[in-house]
Amino acid sequence: MHKVLLFALMLFTFSTNAQVIKLRAKKSAFIEYEKKRKVKWNESDFLIIINTTDKKITFYSDDKREFSYYKTIKIPEDTSKSSDTYGSTTLQFKCIDVEGKECNITLAALDKKQSSYNSRVCLLYSSYALMVDVNPE
């Protein structure tokens, strides 16, 4: 199911059809790169919406965080491989937030050996990351 969700998202992202994907966050972890400590996962409940028509990704939690993406990359780009190093297929969105800062948002279909969740969304800035395990809404 999780690979089907990601494949559908990739198909709609690279086509001209309008598509909105809704994902519900169940667990999240905040990571500051300079602080080398074990990642602590917390229960979460917020919504992530990927709108391929408007090229926007929005996180709805206590506050609304909106990102505009200008490029989509399928990882692995080497099509002879079926997955990246984590055993998943990944889409990476090159984004700009409302403050004009560049970041990446990745959506990975997780291998069942890694997680009981279908996918992981990672919001990646130069100094920190937010990892979120999600299921389709």
Identify the notable features of this structure and list them briefly.
137 residues; mainly beta; 8-stranded antiparallel β-barrel
What order do the helices and strands follow? Answer: HEEEEEEEE
In terms of per-residue confidence, which ranges show pLDDT below 50 for 5 or more consecutive residues? 4-8, 10-16
Q: Given the C-alpha coordinates, what overall shape results?
A: globular
Spatial arrangement of strands, main beta sheet: 1-2-3-4-5-6-7-8
Count of alpha/pi helices: 1
**Largest sheet data:** 8 strands, antiparallel, barrel
Q: Report the span from N to C terminus.
A: 13 Å
What's the alpha carbon Rg, rounded to whole Å? 14 Å
Global structural class:
mainly beta
Helix content: under 10%
Strand content is: over 45%
* pLDDT averaged over residues: 80
| Overall strand count | 8
SSE diagram, text form:
Elements: H1 2-13, E1 20-32, E2 42-51, E3 56-60, E4 64-75, E5 89-97, E6 102-109, E7 119-124, E8 128-136
Antiparallel strand pairs: 1-2, 1-8, 2-3, 3-4, 4-5, 5-6, 6-7, 7-8
Structural overview:
- This protein has 137 residues and is mainly beta.
- Helix content is 9%, strand content 53%.
- The chain contains 1 helix and 8 strands.
- An 8-stranded antiparallel barrel has the order 1-2-3-4-5-6-7-8.
- Strand 5 (89-97) and strand 6 (102-109) form a beta hairpin.
- It is globular, with a radius of gyration of 14 Å.
